[in-house]
Design a protein that fits this description.
By secondary structure, the chain is an all-alpha fold. It is about 65% helix and about 0% strand. The chain has 5 helices and no strands.
Length: about 100
Amino acid sequence: MAMKSLLLLSVLLLSAGTSKAKDGMSPKEAFIFGTITGVGGLLCSMEEAGEFDKDAARQYFNAWVSESKKRPEASDAIPTIDYAYMIITSDVECKALFIQ
């Protein structure tokens, strides 16, 4: 039940305009992809609205990605994490925030 709730939350956070999941992703990879791009998109939107400091948003997102890679259950999904990071940091509206 908790996994379904987390999946629903990640889908709600996921910005359809900024992310493109790869065909053939497993449900686990899609969840991880949605979580990374969802957090990144949310931080980007909050920073653009003036609700979150730019440096804090950048540090939080980079820490989120780094810590996600360290989780044992994500060991086989590191390429998906890297792909999600690349998608959100290359987004036209967000790249100025996430790339130093």
